[in-house]
Amino acid sequence: MKTDIIKININNPEPDKLQHAAEVLRNGGLVAFPTETVYGLGADATNGSAVSGIFKAKGRPSDNPLIVHIADSRDLDRLTALKPEVSEHLIKVFWPGPLTLVMPRSSAIPDIVTASLDSVAIRMPSHPVALALIQKAGVPVAAPSANSSGKPSPTCARHVIDDLDGKVDIIIDGGSVEVGLESTVLDITSPIPVILRPGGITREQLESVIGRVDICPSLMDSEAGLHVPKSPGMKYRHYAPEARIVLFEGKPEKVCKEISRIYRQNTGNGIKSIVLATDETVDCYKGIDVITMGSRKNPDTIASRLFHILREFNDQNVQVILAESIEDRGIGFAVMNRLIKASGYNVVKV
C-alpha cells in the first residue's frame, strides 16, 4: 500500500486536503491525523471491516477497545443507549478536549470497536484538523493512537511515518501535538465515575465539576486482577521504547544515588544505559549519560515531551533506561501511569 503524506495548515486547514481524507474515511480507508493529545489512526466507527484495518495496521490485540471520536455532541444520541446525567456537566466543561467518556453503547457501534463490551468510549477532540476532518467525513471515527501497538504514542507525523508508512492510506502531517499524552478516560456507567486511564484532564479538575471520582486499581498495580479492559491502555504493556525501562521511586537524593550505582554497574557489564532525570536532579549525575524530561515544577511540560523522548532512545541503541519518578498529582499522575506501563511495572522503591 502506498501511503499519501499530506502536510496541512493546522490554523487554517485546507478544505481540499481534508475533503480527500474525509472521502477515504467514508470509503472504508485508514487516515492518521493529529489531535491535541497524540496522533490518531482513524476509520469509520460504524464500518466493522474498516475498523478491522486499524487492528491489522497497528498489530493491536482485538480485545483492546477503541475510542470513538465525534465532532458534535448530538451524535451521542445515535451512538449511546443511555446518556448518564453526569455526562451533560462533563461535556459542557471539558468538550471539545482530552476527555473520553465511557457510556452504554447503542447498536450503531460494531462489536469490534468495543471488544464486544456493552459500553463505548467517546470523545470530541479540540484539535482543529481533527474536528474538521470528522465533520467533513460525516461519520464517527474510531481512532487509537497512530503507532505500532505497544510503542510510545506518536506526537508528530514523523513518529507515525516511522511506524505506519505503507500500512495506512493517508497520514496528515499537522506538526507536533500540544498535550503529548492520551485523553483521560472516565467510566460514567456506574454511580461513582471511575478513571480508567489518566490523561490531559486531571482527577482534580473532574472532581471540581462532578464531585467524587475514583481511580481504577489496575492503573498503577499489576496485581489488580484486570481481565477485560474497558479502555485502551489498561491491560497490555504500552508506551514502551525498545530499551528496557526501570523506574525508581523515592526521595530524589536516594533515587539519584541508586540510579548512579546501577548505571555504573551496567556500564561495567557492557550494557548501554541512559538516565531519564528532571531539571532539578540532572546535575547529580556526574560523568553519566543523562537526559532531562523537564522540571518537576512543570509536569505539563514533562507530559508533552515524554513520548518524544522515549522514541528518541530507539535511535540511540540504548539497552536500559533508568528513569526517575515524579509526584503523581495532577497530570503527574498520568505521566507516572505511562512510565509504569512502559516499564512493565518494573518499579524500584528506594
CATH level 1 name of the largest domain: Alpha Beta
Average pLDDT reading: 94
Secondary structure tally: strands: 16
Instruction: Characterize the overall form.
Output: globular
Profile the largest sheet.
11 strands, mixed
Number of domains: 2
Low-confidence stretches: none
The arrangement of helices and strands along the chain is EHEEHEHHEHEHEHEEEHEEHEEHEHE
The CATH homologous superfamily of the largest domain corresponds to DHBP synthase
Strands ordered across the widest β-sheet? 1-8-2-3-7-4-6-5-9-10-11
Class computed from helices, strands and strand pairing: alpha/beta
Residue share in β-strands = 15-25%
**SS element count, helices:** 11
Describe the structure.
The protein is of the alpha/beta class. It folds into two domains: 4-219, DHBP synthase; 244-349, Rossmann fold. Helices cover 32% and strands 18% of the residues. The protein is built from eleven helices and 16 strands. It has helices at 15-26, 48-58, 76-79, 86-94, 111-114, 128-137, 157-164, 203-210, 252-268, 299-315, 331-342, and strands at residues 4-7, 31-33, 40-44, 67-69, 99-104, 119-123, 141-142, 170-173, 184-187, 194-197, 214-215, 244-249, 273-277, 290-292, 320-324, 347-349. The strands form two sheets. The chain has an eleven-stranded mixed beta sheet with strand order 1-8-2-3-7-4-6-5-9-10-11, with helices on both faces. Strands 14-13-15-12-16 form a five-stranded parallel beta sheet, with helices on both faces. The longest helix has 17 residues, at 252-268. It is globular, with a radius of gyration of 20 Å. The chain starts with a strand and ends with a strand.
